[in-house]
Predict the structure.
Amino acid sequence: MKLFPKNPPYWTIAIIAWIVRFIRMTLRNNLEDKANLFSKKNKPSTENGKRKTVNGHPSTENRHPSTENGQRSTVNGKPSTENGPPSTENGKRKTENRPPSTENRQRSTVNGQRSTENGPPSTENGKRSTVNGQPSTENRPPSTVNGKRSTAVIIALWHNRLLFTTALFPHWYRKNLTTVASSSRDGGYATSFVKNFGLQVVRGSSSKNAVRAVIGLKKALEGGSSVAITVDGPRGPKYKVQQGIIYLAAKTKIPIIPVALNSSSYWQLGGWDKTQIPKPFSKTNLVIGKPIHINLGENEKLSTETKEKYSKLLEKELLKITKDP
């Protein structure tokens, strides 16, 4: 029997997970969600991980009123138009009590440029506005994956805060969250641990099986799952953002959300990252920063300079919300 097996015994991980749960219950946690990451609109309409059903059919609660028990109601064998689409006359659809037609629905222009009046304020004089040289994300539309709307994001964490940060996420959010763990022995411990909290795991790191890790994370994002990445792992240096997360965000066109967990009192372990474990009954502050979008032109390639620029931007935003006593 190996002293430190790659896949540790279940009881060892279970004890560690129980300790983390106990400490988590005692923490006085405060949330600063600047990106509305845990907004109710991102929460799926499920119960116990399954979609609500009525009489075996998907629930239509808070949906179109012309359905009963999951099936569309009918009158004399025809679909009911009660509170639904209006009837027709002479084969043409009535427009009474309907929204106005496309008249006056086209966007107005000023001097040949698209007007932003009553529209997204992220353009000025036909050009996209910038803040400190970076494209503005104010009132930005949601990201898309393969042409479909997606609520998935890429969460950026420091390696020394990974142990408790994801554990403090709401349960419903953790069930749709994927993280990455190295292929090493320590990665085996991490994989077994995070699965206790409902997270999915992709194995690989920048030093080993990097391509497999990127492919796995990309598939998770395309499937609608958010991913959490320790940006200074797996070997450091501490608080130095690696460029892998920039490559992933640019290829998937999904925003990066910086997240930091700050504790008023904690134990600090050895190692390059100085892992922090909050002490019971200490006060913690889970800070979720503003989204960072990787904006590339149609023919623009992800150059080394571009990756370095966004790496420094992400590092700056993470350090801004990180507090070490």
Remarks:
- The longest strand covers residues 256-263.
- The CA atoms of residues 174 and 269 lie 25 Å apart.
- The chain is about 25% helix and 25% strand.
